[in-house]
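Could you show me just one protein sequence together with its fold in C-alpha cell form as a worked example?
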Amino acid sequence: MERARPASLASSDTVGVTNPGGCSPFVLTCDHASNFLPSAFGTLGLPAEDLSRHIAWDPGALPVARRIATALDATLIETRISRLIIDCNRPLDAPDLVPPVSETTAIPGNAGLSDSERAERIALSWRPFHDTIASIIDDRQARGQDTRLVSVHSFTPVYKGKNRPWHIGIIHDDDRRLASPLIAALQRLSGVTVGINEPYSPADRVYFTLERHARSRGLACAMIEIRNDEISGETGQRKWADLLTGIFSDLEPEEAKGSWRHAMGKSVQSAS
C-alpha cells in the first residue's frame, strides 16, 4: 500500500543559501545541516529521541559553517531536511541514499519504498540541494570568480562501539591542493589529533557532493569532519569556526587574497 505523499515543499524550504554573492573564493556546503522531518513523514517510525542523534543530522556542523561563512564573506549552501529522509551526500544509486538502517538503528519508515516514493524524496531535497550548488558555481564561473568547495560535517565520537580519537578529520582524494595545507596547519595546533581520511575516506562514498560539483570542474576541494562532542555548544563551535577561519585566510593565494579583500573593503565602504 502506498504511503501518504509528502507535503509539497518549495526549494527554498528544503535548501538554504547564505550570502549567495560572497566575495570569498570559498563556497561551503553543509550536507547534513538539519534533523527536520516534514510532518507527512511523521517520525519514520522512530522514537523522538532518535531524531536528535547523529543518525538524523550532523550536530554542530551548521553553526560552525555559518560562522566561517560570515567571517570569510563566503557562500554557504545547507540542507534543511534530515538525511533520514534522503542523504544529499550520496549518489542516486547508493544503497544508503534513503537509509533503511543508520549505524545500527533500523528506520521503519524507509523500508520497502516504491520507485515513486523514492523519486519524491529525490525531488523534495536531493535535487534542489544539488541544483542550487550547481547554479551558484555556474554563476561564479561565469563571472570569472575563483571557487574552492569545502563541505562541513561532524562525526560521532563512538561508532558501532569503537572510539574515534580524532578531534577533526580532513577527507580528500588525489587532489590535495586544499587538504595538504589544511592538514599541515591543523597538525601544528597543540593538543589536536587530526585524522587524514579519517573517520571516513572517499572510498566510503562520502565524497559525493565534492565529486559532483568540484572534482568534475577541476575545482580545489576538501571535506571537514569535526567530532561532534567538540562542537556541541556555542563555545566549541566558536573555537573551531575561528580556528578554521584563520587557517582558510592563510591558505588564500596572495593575488586572490588581495582582490577578495579589496572587494570586501569596497562593500564595507558602500554600506557606510
Summary: The two ends are 61 Å apart (CA to CA). The CA atoms of residues 259 and 265 lie 10 Å apart. Confidence is low (pLDDT under 50) at residues 1-10, 253-272. Residues 115-142 form the longest helix (28 residues).
